[in-house]
Amino acid sequence: MANREKNKKTLLELAKLSQNCCCADCGATDPDWASCTLGIFVCLNCSGTHRNLPSVSRIKSIRLDFWDDELVQFMKSNGNRAAKNFYEKFVPVFYYQPQPDDYVYEGMLWKKGKDNGQFLERKFVLSVHDFTLKYYKEDESKGPKATISVKDLNATFQPEKIGHAHGLQITYCVDNHTRNLFVYHKNGQEIVNWFNAIRAIRLAYLKTAFPTASNEELIPWITRNYLKEGYMEKTGPLQREPFKKRWFILDSLDRKLLYFKTQLDAIELGVVFIGPENHGYSVRECVPKGTRGNKWKCGVIVETPDRQFVFMCEQERDQREWVEALKTIISKPMMPQDYTSKIITPLNQMC
In this structure, are residues 204 and 213 in contact, taking their beta carbons and an 8 Å threshold? Predict the structure, then answer.
């Protein structure tokens, strides 16, 4: 215990030195975090960026985490000035240096818990210098609960689904799965501001990723509403398994049909890539023989090169709408980015 306190005191003293008293990345004063693999001191916000680079940078709190003697000695031998002289030696002078206030938007939102229906107030921060959305629990000193890249970020107004007039669904990808955040704000203008801030940072990211594309080409990719959502019943790959009621989302931009246990689930249970007709994809209305356990009788069959999927709708109107929505995607030719989406889509995980 005495050695732990001694190392903590040493780290705090190192962080006060002139070469370490500002964040190595953005220059914010009094950094409380450090990369024990790079030997640098960083602020709370920049520590979230380093957590996205686990193979390069391992982040620890200089106040809360345990530091052994070897790591403390490493920090002594390095520090921000030495690291900058080494890692930034060949960085062009015109490269922009991130600043502490490089944030598009920050504030409090009520967020639904991942495993329950309780909404709790959380701080959210949009950062333009690293293109991330972070949110924090009550104790911000522990760092962000999640750091989300805006690369695959989407936002849609969902007042009915969330049960609040100012509800917003934020969707992103993590480990090849779709993750949902359901949030709201008591003030309608504030949730509109958040929606526009997300669109602004998405456009900034797209202009960086595709510098030659025009605004007209990028606008459809900023955010989008889903082509169709709703409940259907589904069976397993053998088509003899009992049907289960699931919430489906059809994303026309990514050519994906995703399903969740309920409409407020945090993570999808399965996904089907919807390719074009000339690649062996089709959809039709049908009620196949031998099905069991289905309460609904209006069938939809989706054919893919790998498998036939059978779904049941409650009403004929739902059946027609799903078939037409799926046909809209199937009728579109594949774009270059669609092949990447197809590769990472777990086609046979829907069961």
Answer: no
Helices (H) and strands (E) in the chain, counts: 9, 17
Residue pair 22/31 in contact (Cβ under 8 Å)? The answer is yes
Q: 3-class DSSP state for residue 164?
A: coil
> Tokens representing 113?
């818990």
Mean pLDDT to the nearest integer, 154-171? 97
Output b/e per residue, 284-311; b: 16+ Cβ within 10 A: eeeeeeebeebebebbbbbebeeeebbb
What six digits make up the tokens of 164?
Answer: 């609040």
Scanning 32-158, the segments in alpha helix (DSSP H) are 44-51, 69-77, 80-87
pTM for the structure as a whole? 0.71
User: Mean pLDDT for the chain?
Assistant: 89
Please, are residues 298 and 315 in contact by the beta-carbon 8 Å criterion? yes
What confidence tens digit (pLDDT) does each residue in 5-30 have? 899 999 999 999 999 999 999 898 99
Amino acid at 27: G
Provide φ and ψ at 4, rounded to 5°. -60, -45
Helix (H) or strand (E) holding 255: none
CB 230 within 8 A of CB 300: no
Residue 1's pLDDT is 61
Both tokens of 305, joined, read 């090169």
CB 298 within 8 A of CB 319: yes
